[in-house]
Amino acid sequence: MPGKGGLYLWRGFRGRCPACGEGRLFRAFVKVADRCNVCGEDLHHHRADDFPAYLTIFLVGHLIVPLAMFIEIAYMPSYWLHAIVWTPLVIGLSVGLLQPIKGTIVALQWHMGMHGFAEAKQARV
Predict the structure, then answer these.
(1) What are the distances in angstroms from CA 53 to CA 9, 13, 88, 100?
(2) Do 96 and 86 form a contact (C-beta atoms < 8 A)?
(3) Nearest Cα residue to 23 out of 10, 44, 38
(4) What is the C-alpha to C-alpha distance for residues 88 and 49, in angstroms, rounded to an integer?
(5) Coil, strand or helix at 32
(6) Which of left, alpha, beta for 15 (phi over 0: left; psi -120 to 50: alpha)?
């Protein structure tokens, strides 16, 4: 199934089962379901750990810091205005990106047969 890696990643990004694309990947906000409720694919093998949080911080930081620096240099607003503008944006982006990033990482692990997903990959081949 080469060439379909993007499809699996997109399914994970959307919070869907990487195998069928129909079942829910998460049973809670960032708690991965033990298995897909549609196709029965085991999902409990994932080992995303802190990597989704790290990537979220990395991406949000690289988006916000240049914008904040540009605004500071161009308009020199007061610090309280910076806090009012950037705090909700940072929190919103962080919360909004955490689940899609974790879903993408779980789908990548599933697709590549990492950790306990090796058996599922052999079944697909």
Answers:
(1) 17, 15, 18, 11
(2) no
(3) 38
(4) 26
(5) strand
(6) left
According to DSSP, the residues that pair with 32 across neighbouring strands are 26
- Cα dihedral sign, 94-64-57-9: positive
Which of 30, 14, 125 is CA-nearest to residue 22?
14
Nearest to 117 by CA among 38, 105, 101: 105
Q: Are the beta carbons of 109 and 117 closer than 8 angstroms?
A: yes
Task: Say how many Å lie between the first and final Cα of the chain, rounded.
Answer: 7
Each residue's pLDDT tens digit, 23-61: 999 999 999 999 999 999 999 989 999 999 999 999 999
d(CA 106, CA 100): 10
Query: Which tokens sit at 12?
Result: 């994970």
pTM of the shown model: 0.90
Torsion of CA 92, 97, 102, 108, to 10 degrees: 180
